[in-house]
Q: What sequence folds into this?
């Protein structure tokens, strides 16, 4: 069997997390898949899997091969898309994944000039967190991502990470909330409160953005995927809501009050992430250039505020 087919089967195995699910997806038997993975390990002369666990666990070799397998599949899918576009003269697309700080205000303020220059581009905008965005970039499920820049040890080496501006979370509650107007709130008081957790549509597993404190699962009263729904629930309940500072104006205008804490809420960098292969497409490179050039605008805002 050709090596690239074995590598593809290995990628599917990691994506599906079990031999049973992967074999079903590949339309082969589980023993066949097991033999093919062993054949791949023999061919490469390295162990790819850590045996003995119920779910798939990768060695350092397996992690590296998986990332390259995703890139190979990404290039394959992009080749098919390019050919299909030529055959059918379809309009070109730009798929963006972004966090809530970008999707509510910041992104659309930066898009006006780009949309005027590229009126025929079909734009797809999805909400996503940093972890999922990196995986989707690797798999070719989006062209670029606008999100919190992960710490260096959490970054995928094939992805470019360019910080654009700093942001942080603010806490909000209804005027009827027991903590409203109480002055500086302690971490202990927050831990005793109920919360509204604002997630992203693409989240498949629990993930905390760089928040101000750990939210005990038992204290999560509402889990929502829409900023508007989160604000409405905060107005109608005694639950606390954490939002990026970029959404402060929207939250306050709709009746929420900001909470002041007795500890500093950390700032974090947010920016753009992409893989180099998108730079060969003029409309994708132009959008990246638009975002990168906006870094100067945010720097001027900070200077003016000082």
A:
């Amino acid at each position: 069997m050709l090596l690239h087919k074995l590598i593809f089967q290995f990628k599917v195995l990691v994506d599906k997390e079990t031999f049973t699910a992967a074999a079903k997806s590949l339309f082969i038997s589980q023993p066949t898949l097991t033999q093919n993975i062993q054949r791949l390990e023999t061919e490469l002369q390295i162990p790819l899997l850590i045996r003995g666990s119920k779910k798939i666990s990768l060695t350092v070799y397996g992690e590296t091969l998986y990332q390259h397998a995703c890139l190979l599949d990404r290039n394959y899918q992009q080749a098919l898309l390019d050919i299909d576009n030529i055959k059918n003269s379809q309009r070109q697309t730009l798929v963006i994944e972004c966090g809530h700080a970008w999707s509510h205000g910041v992104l659309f303020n930066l898009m006006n000039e780009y949309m005027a220059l590229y009126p025929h581009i079909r734009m797809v905008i999805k909400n996503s967190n940093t972890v999922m965005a990196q995986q989707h970039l690797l798999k070719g499920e989006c062209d670029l991502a606008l999100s919190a820049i992960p710490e260096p040890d959490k970054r995928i080496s094939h992805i470019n990470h360019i910080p654009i501006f700093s942001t942080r979370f603010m806490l909000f509650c209804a005027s009827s909330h027991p903590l409203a107007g109480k002055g500086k709130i302690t971490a202990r008081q927050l831990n005793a409160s109920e919360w509204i957790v604002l997630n992203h549509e693409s989240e498949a597993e629990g993930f905390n953005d760089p928040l101000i404190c750990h939210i005990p699962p038992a204290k999560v009263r509402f889990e929502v995927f829409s900023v508007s729904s989160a604000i409405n629930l905060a107005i109608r309940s005694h639950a606390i809501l954490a939002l990026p500072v970029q959404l402060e104006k929207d939250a306050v205008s709709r009746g929420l009050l900001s909470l002041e804490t007795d500890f500093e809420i950390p700032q974090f960098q947010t920016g753009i992430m992409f893989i180099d292969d998108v730079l060969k497409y003029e409309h994708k490179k132009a959008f990246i250039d638009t975002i990168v050039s906006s870094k100067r605008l945010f720097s001027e805002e900070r200077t003016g505020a000082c």
